[in-house]
Structure formats: C-alpha cells, structure tokens
Write a structure and sequence with these properties.
The structure is a homotetramer.
Chain A (H helix, E strand, L loop, with lengths): L1 E6 L4 H10 L5 E7 L8 H4 L22 E4 L5 H8 L7 E4 L14 E2 L2 H10 L2 E3 L3 H15 L7 E7 L14 H4 L4 E2 L8 H11 L7 E2 L11 E9 L6 E8 L12 H11 L6 E3 L15 E8 L2 E8 L3 H15 L16
Parallel strand pairs in A: 1-2, 1-3, 3-4, 4-6, 5-6, 7-10, 9-10, 12-13
Antiparallel strand pairs in A: 7-11, 8-10, 11-14, 13-14
Chain lengths: ~350, ~350, ~350, ~350
C-alpha cells in the first residue's frame, strides 16, 4: 500500500483527491492536512463521502509515515512551503500547482503529462502536475507538434466548468450570474500558455517553427502562437476545447495530411496512452465527465483541421492525472483507482 | 411622471427595480442611491441595462425632489434608516424589507398584497411590500381561507431560485455546489410564516380555525399550522409551490368542494386581479418567469386538494409587485410598466 | 466470474448497467441484446464508454451461456417476454420493470429492496428490482413503519431528474422547456404507490393503521394514505424527497419520539445497510449523485417529523440496486462494483 | 395599428413573435395560422401567455384583412407557400426562413439587417429576416469589413442556446443529454455562411480580399474565409460569439488599428443603431437575454483583435429583429414593442 499525505486537503482538488484515493486498491491516506479544518470529519466538508470514511483533517504533517505527499495548495504556495519545511528525501512529492511546471536548473520536477513523459515520470521523485486547460489543449496538439505540422498560429477556444475557478465564492461563480451565462476571461493571456508552449517546443522537429510564449516574449519572425480564448461555461465539471490548425501544400502531401492520415497519426500517437483516446466520430463533453479520460477528434476542411479535445478538469485536468502519475511513480497499474464510471448524464 | 428615489439601488432588488422603471411610461428615476457605488454607471453594475440608461449611482438622497422612495435594504435596515433620517410627509415610502409587514400600533404601513388590500393600498402613504415565498403561498391559499375551508394543517413545499438568496456570494449560491443540486433550509421555520399567518387569519370567517404562527407561538388546541418546507432550486428566477389541503365531509358539501367548485371559487376570487390568474390546466414555472404574473392551479383527490402556485420571485415576489403597488398608490393603470414579455425558455 | 446477459441493453438503464458491469471485478457481460442496435458498438450508443469496451450489441440471446439475465425493458414487456421465451431454470432473472414488484401467487419474484429483504434476496432466483421513487420514499419511511409510527397521512414531495423520464425525447424532456423549469405530474397518482404501500404494510405492526393504496382502493375508515407529489426537476440525475409525518401524544412518549430517538431509530434500522446511511446533518442531492448510496436525515418540529431522503435514480433507484441485488444473489461482496466516486459537483 | 397575420404560428418563432406583438403599442394580430392547432387557444400552446390573450389559432388566412404577413415556416417552405398562394400586392411579407436571404434576380426581398440596410428596409415590401448566427457574427465583423480590415481568415466560435434547434424534440435537445454538456456541429459548414459572406463582400472596399463562401465555392488565391465552429450550449436562449481577426503592418498604421482606434471604429459604425451597442468593458451573455439588443466588445493583442458579440437568438436573432424591421417598414418608432426587460438572471 502506498502511504499518502495530503496538504491543502480541504480545497476542491484536495476533496477530489480523497474521493479517488478512498477507493484506490493500493493506496492509503495517512494524513489529510488542513489547519482551518483540523479535527473535522472529511465527509462533513467534502460532498459525496458520507458513509465512506471516518477520516478527519489534521493540523499535523507526519512526513515520516508516508511514501508520497500531494501538494493541493494554491499557486505559488508550494514553493513557499518547501522553503519553510523539510520533507524527507525518500518521500515523493506531487505538486498540483504551477510552481514547478516550467523546467529550470533550480528544481528537478518532472512535468507530469504521461502521454509524453511516461518514462521520466516512472523514475522521478518530484512531479509537477499539469494544469487543466494545459492538459486538454496539449492533448489536442501534441501529435501535430511532434509531426512538425504546426506551422501557423493556432486558434484555441476552450470552455471550462465552474470548478476550475476554485472553492471560494465570487461574482463569476455566483449561481445567479453564471447559470445560463457565457463569457470569456484572460483572453490570449492565460497562464497555462507557458507550459503548453514548453511541451510543443519540446516535441517539435528542428525545422518546425518555434511556438512563442506570448506571455513571456514578443514572437519573432517565423514563430507561431497559440491564440487561446478561455470561456466560463455554465456547467461544473469539464473542459471542452477546439483547436484550428492550418496546413500548407497539397492535401495528401507531407505538410498537409488528409483526414485519414490525421486519424492514423493521432491513433498511433495515443496507442499506448492509458486514458487518452482518438475517436473517429464527433465527441461531446459528458463522455468524459467524472472520468480520467481524454477524448480527441479531428475534422479536416480544405487545408485546415479542427481538433476537438476534452477532459474532466478535476480528474485528467488535476487529481486524476496526479493519481495516474503516482501509479507510474510507484510502478503499479497505471489505471489503479481510476476505472471510474462516467456520469454520462 | 412619478418621480422616484431608490435606496439600496446596487443590490439585486434595486437592479431589478431599475430595469422595470427604465421602461415605465409614467415613472422617472430621480436618484439611485448607493454609497459604495456612488459615481458609477448603473449599467456597469446591473446586468442587462447596457445601452438603455446613462443613470449613475449617487450618495445623495434628495427627498424633496421625489414623490416616492423605494427602500431596497436588507431586512432590519429600513427601521434603522427611518430612525436616523427624516423623509418629508408628502413622499410615499415602499419598503421591500420585512420590517413593517406585520401590522402594529407603532406604524401605519399597509401590507401590499393587491389581491386582498387593493383599496387600502390606493389610499396609503407607506407600504410594506410582501415577501416572495409569502406572496406565492398566500396566492395559493387565500381563496380557501376566505371561504373558511382551511380546517387542517397545510403541507406547503416551495422551491425558490438562487436570486432569492441575494447578491452576496456564499457556499449555497456557489455555482459548483448549486448546479444540479437540491436541498432544503429553514424547514418549518421560514420567517415568511409571520405574514402568511397574518393574512390567512385576516380573511378567515369567525368559525374557521385560527392559523397558528408556529414561529411565534405554540399552536393551541384547534389551531391549524402551515407546514412550510423551503427548497433551494437550481435555477435563478422563480418560486414553484404546492399546497396540500384536507377537507371534511362529503365531497360536494359546503365543507368539501368538488374540483369544479374549487375552480369556480379561485376564478371568482381572482376575477379582478391584474396579474393573478387561475388556470384549469397544469402549470409550469417558466410561464411566469420574467413577468409580474402569478398562476394558480388546483387538483382534487378524494378529500384533498393540491394547489400549485407560482411567481417570479424578483417580480411578483418583490419589485414587480412593488411597482404594481406604486401604480395603485398614484392612481394610474395598475399594469403600467409591467406588461413584460415572459422569457418562456 | 458471474456471466451476464442484458436484454433491452440500448436504453438508459441498459447503458448505466453496462457502465457499472464493465468495471465490476466479478462480472462479465456475455451478451448485450438489442435488436435495433445489433452489430453496433456499445460505446457508440452509450455515452461515457469510449475506450473502455469493444462490446457490440447483438440480436442473439444465448441464455445457456449466462448465469443471470437483466431485463431492462419498459414496463409490461417483461411479462410478455417471458410468455414468449424459455429461460433455463438455472439462469437467474433480475427484472428492472414493475411487472413483478407486487407479490402474487402467479410468480415467485422477490421484491429487491435489500434494506428489508436481504435474506430472501440471497436465496432467490427471480428478483423484481424496485422503482426509483419507490426506493427513495420507502427508505425515508420504513423505520417509522416498522416502529408503528405511521399513524396519519404522509405528505411526500419528491423531485426527480430527467433521466427518470427515459431516453425517448418528448415535450417535457426538451431542454428548452425543462431547463430552469419546475412542474408536477401524476399528482397523488404515481404508479410507485403500489409497491410503497406493499412494503409499508408488510413492516407495520398489527395495531398500526393500514396504508391504503389509493390507486387501487378507496381508503377505509382508519386507513392512512401516502400523499405523493412527483416533481420534474431541472437536473439529469437524482431524486430528492421530503416526507412529513405526524405523531400523537406527548413528545418523548412511545408514540411521539424526540429528535434523538428518531436519530437512534433510523441509525439502528440502517446499521447493516451497505449503502443507506442516516445523517444527523442536513443533506443535499449531489452527495449521492453517481453513487449507489441513499442518505436519510430527519428533523423534528413539535409533533411532526420532516424526513429528507435521496438517491441517484439510475443507481440506487435502478441498476445500482440491481447489481447490489445480483451480488447478494451470488453470495459475493455486496459492494462489489459499486464503490463509485460521487460526482460531487 | 398595423394589422398582422402570422403563418406557422405554433412554432418557436411564432410563439415568440406573438409574445412580442401582444404588447406592441401599434400592432394588432389579426390571425395566427396553424392548421394542426386550429381552434386551440394560443396561450395553451405557447408558454408565458396565460392571462394575456384570448387569441386562438386558425386554419384561415384572411390576407385581405392584414397589412403584413410573417412567415414563420421552416426553411424552404416560404418559397413553396408563395408558389401555391396569392398574397395581395399591398400586403408586406416578412420571411423568417432563409429562402430569400441571398439576393437574386428572381426575387425582390431585402436582407433585413438594419445596421446596414435601414434605408432599403424602410422602402421594401418583402423582407428576408437574417439568421441568428448570421446576425451575431456579422455584427462582430461588419465594421472591420467596411474599413477594409478583413485581410486574413477569421476564426469564429459561436455558442447557441437550445431554442436555436427548434421545437421538435431530438437526441441533442434531450435535457438528459444536453444539460451540462458541450459539443460542436456543422463545423465549417453551417448554412449561415452564405448570408455572412454576402454582407461582408457587400461592404468591403474594392481593394480588400474577397470573402469566399466555402460552402459554395473553393477559395481562390487571395480570398479569405470565415472559419466558423458552431457549438451547442447548455442554455436555452442566446448566442455568444468570438471572432479572431489578424491585421498586417505596424500597430497604429492604417492596416493595424490600435485598441482605441478599434473602439472608435465600432462606436461610430453603430452610433445610429437602435439596439446594437459597442461596449468598452467585457460583456457576458445574460446582458442581452430576453432583449432585442446586440452587444459587441473588442480586445487587441499584438496584431490580432478578438471580438466578442452576442444576441438573444430568438429576438435580435429572429423575431425581435423582424419586428424591428416591421417598425421600419411601416415608418413607426424603430423600438416600438421592443423595450424589453432583460432577464438578467
């Protein structure tokens, strides 16, 4: 049994992580840390656990009793926490925040997207779990990036559920406002662009254009950009994304694949993925809600392809992927604890 | 033109009142008071007014320039405000809060339910506008109360939209929680019981049982009670209510009306009502959403009747009824400014 | 491995059953019968199964290869099917329809509510799975029935998700109509009253009043009734129910339990239940959505108790309970395949 | 009073048209034709009209008694109807379908988008009312088209409410499927592309690239395209659209306007529009729901602009605009009957 500690256990991701681990066949929660909720029953705080656990939140952090710690902090707090606390070397860390997603000489965190980093993940001690939008958008574009087919700016539209906005009530998560509403935010300026660009550039062949991270740099001549518009959806779970890509040359040539070639490219790219599937038919969001799956579909029109990709933002977009990564890090069945019944309706 | 001042103009009811008055053919908003929003454009704060008004919030309260003031404060603040401010005698007051809904020797506010108090409303200077649940439940029960047919405890279930919970974000108005959820609150203890009991007792014939206000008193032998369960609905606007009433004696006798007799009783009771209609067919909530209408329907089963009543909580349940009352108080067309297109979908 | 055949596999309950069984550790689907979909991939028809199964619908019914058959037909068709087909004696039957829920000399089906029939279920070959409303309402009332505390008519209000209306599109399941809407149907006349009354009468002590099935008989003097109003909710999954019960005598006496006594009564009644839990705190629907759990809570006011009970209509209200029954019938872990992560949001 | 006849009066647009006209100060419905509903009360068929009208559907079509006829048929039926019926020359026609939206020598219908055709509309006898997506997308792009600033392919994403799919229940309008779901359809192939391209080409300066109607023709070298992805939203009313446009040259030059220049361009273009407003702040869909308004907002990032445009699909996207056109055709106040209270919540 993998012994687990959770920090920030009273938030949304903390709750969803507990809902997963409670039924994980090879995991055991040793502590769920929350200062503000110390002593309270976990099932009194987190929806959906009634009758399933007697676990209580604790203010303690007994790192010597665990094999791995999940950081379910807000962004920026993981770094601060590590500066103030010592975690034994033999304890692995899985960080849900964005603090270590960008590779740097100052840290050894592996970016935890199994579709491209499975082998590194298996060996790592410290893992930075990808962002929700970042996961969904990358899964739509990675096969093209690797094939050197991203040669023009990409139009990305992605609609997220309200759980993406976290637990704290606010004007834009107020039911009266959000119900039956639609809006955009952080247009072209969402922070997940950093990690998306990092992965796309990592995979691209040398002769393919660089993907400029427009949040950090002005694109140079020849660079391409990810033009990402995030939408606030009037549902609670899920991210639904479309990506429009333009190709050059005659259809069927090496630079402009046909629909069949795209289908083959994606199918091959994801043939070993545990949870990401290419679908030949059109897809809809509820196929993945409450699962760790990602579905991807591609349509071709003239010299353009329209990719549809989708995930559950709290699962494949957060703690589901984190548990998948944990499974890989501990050498157990990648799907353990993640064979989830989709809500479907 | 009726010249109008609004206090508490930045809240939900304040906003809805402005949305109504902006198109009212005989009303003119002189000031919309909000200290925290003073100087801001009303259309920047209140959804749905873009392009329709240049009005700005003000911290001023020029009572000498208005004919009527609407109090859109939270409960308890109207009383406090009046203790601290002088409002000229010639300025009428319409209070949205519950401060003056219960008749008392200490005030002269008329309870503003036109279906029972039209004549008093026409003559009054100070009006206490009814609560949303209270309006909906009363409209379902008043014809029976007046006919002396409320002889047993009444089972009331009423589901309200999230706007009933006000503008301030909270755990139970968080979209992630409320979406697709259902729950109850203040079971048997909702504060609107006070005004409901007041009206039912006001109308009842001498020989009919007293309706005990269980919030204020223990029922005496022979009293009846209103057993009211409020539900939080996963929609934004509207109250949908069922009331189950038990009769005595043979069906068709004076104490146990037939379905046809009930239909006739309700139709007659509401024959002069401007916005309340009895329907012979079953009704659904969206028939009244975004209108000032109330619809009522009655089914009969054995010695019981099931009444369905419904309103838009922000309109007939709040500022729509307030404008209806204003129209009556100023002797103009009762429907002025209230011929609203229902949303329907 | 329990070998399973499914008839009517292309409908809502058929799909949900497949979603459950695909991950059941001791079950194997041998055939999923659907004439109209014969040859089609199950994952192309049922939302949420993409990437999880290669199963195809078949027009065949190889009963000799299975241990148990699930009938996922519409009501009335199970009876007809059995008249036209021979099912080997060694094949158990679990019927989702209402055809055999009422005990009769003409059949040997056990009514599959484990909270009251666990021992009979373990031994039976033929099982009639309870209705969704019926399950939810019974779980709220059974402890009182057994204790002889149902002495007055019970006011029942239950709100169901749209999946309760089945897969066939209709006016009242059209999104444009149902979204943000609320309505009632089959008021006091829902067919589940039959099975509810059967169970309540089965459990009641001899001296307690009979519960009259008002659909089938006129109540006699002294009988009590279940006054059930079904509501159409604007969500897809779940049933949320309140039941108001009146007691006689002094609070704390044998006939009028206190809140604490009620809590103890319910806790004790469900102490061995695998999925039904009594909660001392108020509950909300999403705690059970996408799980096989039922939650029950009781409030006490004067001489009345308000019970809140809730389930997922497709799981504990249909195929989840059916799988629970199958587990009992085959002597395996009652929770096998039913440790489901709640959707929570 | 304008005397009005409605054909196809029992459908969604027919119902919404009646909801508008019932309160129009200068209009009178003479007949509402529906063969299948002949004799039925309009308020029994169309949600939201209870208590407001005694009008009944009729199978008659007394064209001699009306000034204008609205065709609320499905697409293709207007043409067929006119082939089979004679409508007097003095009766104006407003067609809701797409039959006459594309100019042709065979008909004299004016394309009824007041923002570009107000003068032609005032003089016309036959009007083709624009499509819902087409209206929303055009209002986002017309100022750029006229200024010759559409020089690259435009990425358009537009999310529509379920009422856009019509009244007939189907798999994708089933509440159980659509609730909390998201999907795309007719990707790059929506039929409204025809009319969008027609308007954009009509307004473009001679030196600007042609907009190729990709449904009808293969783009030639130098043409640009409208890459339109329609989404099915999980709300009932409204269209929310983003359009991404790329400019050339230095920011601030004639070919690459700054944010301020774009704001000025749009503000000026819509300065005389009765219902279309440019907003400097970000906008959200519920600002227009249940109104005839269109709101447009533009953000600028590097050499790209992101336009947000939105309407209520049944009003500005259908019958609201039709009534606006009627008002222009009869020389009355353009806003008559269209000062609608937004739902806001």
């Amino acid at each position: 049994m993998i012994k687990i500690g959770i920090l920030g256990a009273a938030g949304y991701t903390g709750g969803e992580l507990i809902r997963l681990l409670i039924n994980h066949p090879e995991a055991e929660i040793v502590f769920a840390n929350s200062e503000s909720n110390a002593g309270n029953l976990v099932c009194d705080v987190h929806e959906g656990l009634m009758g399933e656990t007697d676990l209580r939140f604790t203010a303690e952090m007994p790192f010597d009793k665990v094999d791995v710690v999940f950081f379910c902090f807000g962004h920026g707090k993981s770094w601060a926490f590590l500066n103030e606390h010592d975690i034994p070397n033999n304890v692995k860390i899985i960080d849900m925040a964005q603090d270590f997603r960008i590779a740097a000489p100052t840290h050894d965190y592996v970016y935890g997207l199994p579709e491209i980093h499975r082998e590194e993940i298996k060996k790592c001690a410290h893992l930075a779990n990808p962002g929700c939008f970042a996961t969904c958008i990358q899964l739509g574009l990675l096969p093209l990036a690797k094939a050197g087919l991203l040669c023009h700016d990409v139009a990305v539209n992605a609609i997220t559920g309200s759980t993406g906005a976290g637990q704290k009530p606010s004007a834009t998560t107020h039911f009266s406002w959000r119900n039956n509403n639609m809006s955009v935010y952080k247009v072209f300026e969402h922070q997940h662009l950093h990690e998306i660009c990092q992965s796309l550039n990592e995979l691209r062949p040398k002769n393919a254009p660089k993907v400029a991270d427009t949040l950090a740099e002005k694109p140079s001549e020849g660079d391409i950009t990810i033009d990402f518009i995030p939408y606030r959806g009037d549902f609670a779970r899920g991210i639904f994304c479309t990506e429009v890509v333009k190709f050059d040359g005659e259809e069927g040539s090496a630079t402009n694949p046909t629909a069949e070639q795209l289908s083959a490219l994606y199918t091959d790219f994801y043939k070993d993925a545990a949870f990401t599937h290419y679908c030949n038919a059109a897809i809809d969001l509820k196929q993945v809600v409450n699962t760790n799956k990602a579905l991807v579909h591609v349509d071709k029109f003239g010299n353009k392809a329209v990719i549809t990709s989708m995930i559950d933002n709290l699962l494949k977009g957060a703690v589901g992927q984190a548990v998948q990564n944990m499974n890989l890090m501990f050498g157990i069945d990648e799907k353990a604890g993640l064979r989830l019944k989709s809500t479907a309706f």
